Prior knowledge:
- It is built from 16 helices and 15 strands.
- It has a 7-stranded mixed beta sheet with strand order 4-10-9-8-7-5-6, with helices on both faces. The protein has a 4-stranded antiparallel beta sheet with strand order 11-12-15-14. The chain has a two-stranded parallel sheet with strand order 1-13.
- Strand 11 and strand 12 form a beta hairpin.
- The two termini are 35 Å apart.
- It folds into 2 domains: 234 residues, 3-Layer(aba) Sandwich (Aspartate Aminotransferase, domain 2); 132 residues, Alpha-Beta Complex (Aspartate Aminotransferase, domain 1).
- By secondary structure, it is of the alpha/beta class.
- The chain binds pyridoxal-5'-phosphate.
- Pyridoxal-5'-phosphate binds next to helix 5.
- The site of pyridoxal-5'-phosphate has 14 residues, from helix 5.
Amino acid sequence: MPETTLAPSDSDVSAATLADTDPAIAKLIAAEAQRQEHTLELIASENHCSAAVMAAQGSCLTNKYCEGYPAKRYYSGCGFYDEVESLAIERAKQMFGCGFANVQPHSGANANFAVQLALLEPGATFAAIQLSDGGHLTHGSPVNVSGKWLNPVTYKLVDDESRDDWGHIDYDSVDAVCAEHKPKVLMCGYSAYPRTIDFAKFRAIADKHGCLLWADVAHIAGLIVGGAHPSPFPHCHIVSTTTHKTLRGPRGGLVLTNDEDLAKKIDRAVFPGSQGGPLMHVIAAKAVAFGEALRPTFKTYASEVVKNAQALASALMGKGYKLSSNGTDNHLMVVDLRPTDPDLAGKEAALWLETAGIITSMSTVPKETRKPFNPSGLRLGTPALTTRGLGADDMNTVAELIDRVLTSKGDQGKLDAVRSDVVELCKKFPMPH
Ligand SMILES: *Cc1c(COP(=O)(O)O)cnc(C)c1O
């Protein structure tokens, strides 16, 4: 039978089939779809990817071992996978305007581990921001391999509140830590930093002290690709990112560079250095998401994300809330709850908000006075709400809902009232498909 007349394959398991074969899991997935539909997603690292991305990720490509790289595989039968991975690589390079891309890291943390394996010997010194100022676990936390096996030294944010650049990167402290410790690698890129990163300034400091400059743009990748944040290229030697935050793809990682020697080191550090078989279904989904991000509509999306964040930030500040650095340039903001309610910590605030259908994450704040598992702040972001179609005017409504929760003292009646208003708002913005 010629290939074109083949019936649809059984391997394309549809949701209907799942309901027959595993009703328990099918029911939970349906319940989660409902939850997403009826809540406001304000976690800065989350988004709603397209049905096309999910179709690629849910495909028969999950069945294949493809250890190696395109045209250099350890298994037979990889022909179509070579084309899929090559497409993902080409689109990644096009998105960031760079020469080399590795699309295999299973996650942002895996991408960062591969970069560290490629660039740093055990015990080697690298500089990154201190965790409480908005860094990531993989940037040298003592509980992560980056802190256990390497020697992180840290710079900080400007902590003098009388300065205009309070809460921005303290570039003098970057320079000072590099001068003192001569790290091999200088890292920029953060998980809770609301301001623009000056990659050129970082590069000047890196060059002055003979460091390689590495940007982890996990949070802002989509803004970079959409032209709403300056590009790390040509300033950075290595760039790592996730693909599922503002970039709106499947969960995964990505490493980019313009340097051929570094590219070879990165490839070896990903496979066989730290991973086995690539997740080819995820790589296909990355290719689909990259294709979406290369369309002109994604530029509009990225600029709307920032406009919405700025609208939400000014609405909250208008209600008296204190934001780290007094605002935002990107997709996120960090609310310090202490000045408005000294008794309300991040964990309880996030719980009240969740009860009301507003999903957020707690966050440490500059000059944190509480413990990391119950810090003093909330991190809010607009990537997911913007995907759903909420605009700047709607951010006033969202700020109003958040304020009603944070001033409710946890009163169940008040939280229930917000919950029903949240559901009404959600109905106006159905999930995109
Ligand atoms: C989210 C994030 C990561 C880790 O990504 P995972 O996919 O969760 O492993 C790494 N670096 C930064 C800055 C992040 O924000």
